[in-house]
C-alpha cells in the first residue's frame, strides 16, 4: 500500500491527537482523501478517532506497527543466517 502521498517520515512525527484538516494541510491531497485514508487505518486498528465538540480528533496507535516491525526484524535475522550458511557452503565447494 505504498503511495507517494504517504512519505515514511510524515506519520512518525504526529503522535498527539490531531484533526484531518491539519494533516491535509501538510499533504498534497485533499482533506476528503485524508479522511478516506484515516478510515482505512481506523478499520485496521492503527488509528482511532474521538469527537470533541465539533471536531474529530485522530490518534495513531503505534503498538501494532511495533509488533510488525519486531516480527520483520526476526524474519530478517533468520534469512541473514540462512544466506550466510548458503554462502559458506558455496565457498566450501569451490
Q: Give the integer mean of the pLDDT values.
A: 85
**Number of discrete domains:** 2
Give the terminus-to-terminus CA distance: 43 Å
Helix content: 55-70%
| CATH topological fold name of the largest domain | Arc Repressor Mutant, subunit A
What is the 3D form?
elongated
Please list the strands of the largest sheet in the order they lie side by side: 1-3-2
**What is the class of the largest domain in the CATH system?**
Mainly Alpha
Assign the CATH superfamily of the largest domain: Winged helix-like DNA-binding domain superfamily/Winged helix DNA-binding domain
What class would the helix/strand composition place it in? alpha+beta
Low-confidence parts, pLDDT < 50 over ≥5 residues?
4-12
Q: Biggest sheet, in brief?
A: 3 strands, antiparallel
Topology readout:
Layout: H1 8-12, E1 18-19, H2 20-26, H3 31-43, E2 47-52, E3 55-60, H4 63-92
Explain this structure to me?
This protein is α+β, with helices and mostly antiparallel strands. The chain has two domains: 13-61, Winged helix-like DNA-binding domain superfamily/Winged helix DNA-binding domain (Arc Repressor Mutant, subunit A); 62-94. Helix content is 59%, strand content 15%. The protein is built from four helices and three strands. It has helices at 8-12, 20-26, 31-43, 63-92; strands spanning 18-19, 47-52, 55-60. Strands 1-3-2 form a three-stranded antiparallel beta sheet. A hairpin with a 2-residue loop joins β2 and β3. α2 packs across α3 (31-43). The longest helix has 30 residues, at 63-92. It is elongated. Mean pLDDT is 85; it is low at 4-12.
Amino acid at each position: 500500500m505504498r503511495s507517494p502521498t504517504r512519505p515514511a517520515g510524515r506519520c512518525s512525527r504526529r503522535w498527539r491527537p490531531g484533526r484531518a484538516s491539519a494533516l491535509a494541510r501538510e499533504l498534497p491531497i485533499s482533506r476528503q482523501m485524508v479522511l478516506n485514508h484515516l478510515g482505512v487505518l481506523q478499520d485496521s486498528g492503527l488509528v482511532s478517532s474521538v469527537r470533541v465538540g465539533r471536531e474529530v480528533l485522530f490518534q495513531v496507535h503505534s503498538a501494532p506497527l511495533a509488533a510488525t516491525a519486531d516480527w520483520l526484524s526476526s524474519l530478517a535475522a533468520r534469512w541473514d543466517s540462512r544466506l550466510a550458511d548458503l554462502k559458506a557452503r558455496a565457498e566450501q565447494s569451490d
